[in-house]
Structures are given as C-alpha cells and as structure tokens.
Design a protein that fits this description.
Blueprint (H helix, E strand, L loop, with lengths): L2 H15 L12 E7 L4 E10 L2 E10 L2 H14 L4 H16 L4 H8 L12 H18 L5 E3 L2
Parallel strand pairs: 1-4
Antiparallel strand pairs: 1-2, 2-3
Helix pairs in contact: 1-2, 2-5, 3-4, 3-5
Bound molecules: zinc ion.
C-alpha cells in the first residue's frame, strides 16, 4: 500500500471509531432509513431543513467501517449546504467511488471525501460507501420508506 492510501485509511478508521453527528435528531424535518443487504449495513439519516438549506445532518446505524465513515463524513460535508449542492456532491462522490469518468472535475469540491477514491477497486464496497447518500436522497424526497442499495 502506498503512503497515500495509508493516510486515507486512517481518516476512514478515525470516522468509523469516532463518527461525527452520530445521533438521532429529535426535531428533524426529514428522515429516512437505508439498508445494504450485501453487507448488512443499516443507517438512518436525519435532516433539519430550513428552507432549502440543511441546517443539521445526522445519522444513526451500524455497519462496516466504510459505511459508517462515509455517513459520518457526509454529515460533515453537507451541513449548511443546499439541496442542490447536496445533489451535486452526491454525483461527484458517486463518480469518485465507481471510477466512472468525470470525477476529476468535481474532485475539488469533494474535499476530504476523496479518501473514498480507493473504494473503486472494491466494487462490493461501493454500496457501503454510497448507502448514506442514497438514504439522504430518500430523506430529501421525503420518501417514508427504506432505501436500499439493491
Ligand atoms: Zn458495508
């Protein structure tokens, strides 16, 4: 492993061990649950929207290190963002972890989320990394259903 991927792994392990915004939001305006049957990851995403802005984003759940770290870093990346910015970030993140083309253009906006670029080498892990994001999208759409990566 290169030094870079060691560093990336450290960030992921840190977020897995000490997840940020890991709590139920009692006054959430939106929430959704997600499940990744391939790995057994479960997540509930809470959103407190003020107009179009995400004032607070939090999550609860259990799963592998990738899914938990991804959810944790997502909540940090999205707090204070608009719905539209969140969609753009998700698109960039999805391109990053699947290695599908034009991720270099949006990589600058992804900030720390680029630590997940190594996931593209492990297709099974892509669903772990994107579960929280799929669930966030379901929450934004106010789908009162369980989001699944399948
Ligand atoms: Zn997983």
């Amino acid at each position: 492993m290169s030094e870079t991927s060691d560093l990336y792994q450290e960030v992921i392990l840190d977020h897995n061990k000490h997840p940020r915004n890991f709590q139920r939001l009692e006054d959430a305006s939106h929430r959704a649950e997600g499940f990744n049957p391939l790995c057994g990851d479960r997540v509930t995403v809470y959103l407190q929207m003020e107009g179009d802005v995400m004032r607070r984003v939090s999550f609860e759940g259990s799963g592998c290190a990738i899914s938990k770290a991804s959810a944790s870093m997502m909540t940090e990346a999205l707090t204070g963002r608009t719905r539209r910015q969140a969609e753009t970030l998700f698109e960039g993140f999805h391109a990053l972890v699947t290695g599908s083309g034009a991720d270099s253009a949006s990589a600058g906006d992804l900030g720390k989320l680029v630590v997940f670029s190594g996931v593209r080498d492990y297709p099974v892990r892509v669903k772990c990394a994107t579960l929280a994001w799929h669930t966030l999208r379901a929450a934004m759409e106010k789908q009162d259903a369980v989001a699944s990566t399948e």
